[in-house]
Amino acid sequence: MHGIMYGTETSSEELSRLSSLSELGRRALECKVEADLSDEAEALVRKVVESNPDDYTLWNYRREWLLSLKGEAHDRLVKVWNDELRLTEKALLRHPKAYATWQHRVWLLAEAKDMEIDLATRTGLFEKELALCSKMLKMDARNFHAWAHWERVSKIAGKHEPARVVEYTEQQINADFSNYSAWHYRSVNLAEGIPIQDKTALDQLLDEEVDRLRQAFYTDPDSQSAWFYYRWLLNGAPYYSEGKTSALFNIKDEFLKNELKACQELIDLEPFSKWALLTKVYLLRRLGREAEAEDTIVKLTEIDPMRLGYYRNLASTSTRAV
Questions:
Q1: Taking residues 26-47, what's their average pLDDT?
Q2: DSSP letter string over 234-248?
Q3: N or C of the chain: less Cβ packing under 10 Å?
């Protein structure tokens, strides 16, 4: 996990374990080179990936073994597929951000149909998979692997509903305003999750999004994730569709003036909030009030001298977006 300090000394027991794992890995690779698809080789590879779930080569090797089972009895295939999913779940609980393991799970779900596993069983697998994602997100709500996997699985299952994603991100954001992944997936799905032809619905949505952001800012003025999402909204919530970029909202000067007033109210309470001041600069420039923007940049240099060079560059490029 990020921010965790690790010791530099390794115990003799750990060295012995690593040596044993290295030997198992060497033998597993030999089996792959020899194209050994026996149950004995499978058991050996299983031991290695349980301890080292980032090994792409050995996960790929397991796929060769799994594909070799095509045509076997349906009950046997279902058991093997469930066992394989349990194996990857065990690995992910130990290493939640192992790319290779997440990709292997996606492959298992996508390949189940070609392996002629029946629809009812596949549906059950997808339901369990979505439940696993929720479990992983409870452990670490910002785990972008779990977020991406949740979206991929929904698409494979034919259950990708942008409105449902937006609703789920709202739950996660309300639990933690600093959840960058939740804000990101909200922005990706927002345009698809509402009737964009309905102006009244759009106006209501914009008001609701701003209200949610207000709560985030007053709860944690340093929540970078919320400020990034806010900037996206102020730019009209751009999204990409049918080969072009469009804006979800038509942002007018009157709206920007109201937001500038609200931003200043926050600054009055939190005068050292860098993100609030940067947003004030952005709003002032959008409204053509450059002199006031420059004064605000001067204040930023005083409260955040570590980024003096950035602020000087910002001041010298008055037409540049903040």
A1: 92
A2: HTT-EEEETTEEEES
A3: N
- What is the phi/psi pair of residue 191, to 5°? -65, -30
Report the C-alpha gap between 56 and 58 in whole angstroms: 6
Tokens of 250: 């038509």
Report the alpha-carbon distance of residue 129 to residue 153 in Å, rounded: 7
Write the pLDDT tens digit of every residue in 115-142: 888 989 988 888 888 887 888 788 887 7
Residues in the chain: 322
Question: Do residues 278 and 308 touch, judged by C-beta distance below 8 A?
Answer: no
Distances (CA, A) of 38 to 26, 34, 41, 136, 305: 17, 11, 5, 33, 63
- How does DSSP classify residue 195? -
CA-to-CA distance for 38 and 54, rounded, in angstroms?
Answer: 23
* Per-residue pLDDT tens over the stretch 69-125: 999 999 999 999 999 999 998 998 888 889 999 999 999 999 988 888 898 998 888
Report how far residue 226's alpha carbon sits from residue 279's, in angstroms, rounded to the nearest whole number. 12
Question: By the 8 A CB rule, do 156 and 109 touch?
Answer: yes
**Position 191: which residue type?**
A
> pLDDT tens-digit profile of 131-174?
878 887 888 877 888 888 888 888 888 878 888 888 889 988 99
Amino acid letter for position 52: N
Q: Which class would CATH give 252-322?
A: mainly alpha
Whole-angstrom distance, CA of residue 114 vs CA of residue 63: 13
Alpha carbon 298 to its chain's center: 35
Alpha-carbon distance of 89 to 158, in angstroms, equals 22
Question: How many CA atoms are closer than 13 Å to the CA of 147, on its beta-carbon side?
Answer: 20
Question: For residue 207, what are its two tokens?
Answer: 């008001």
Among 124, 80, 88, 131, which residue's Cα sits nearest to residue 106? Answer: 88
Q: What residue ranges do the domains of the chain occupy?
A: 252-322
Tokens 């699985």, located at residue: 153
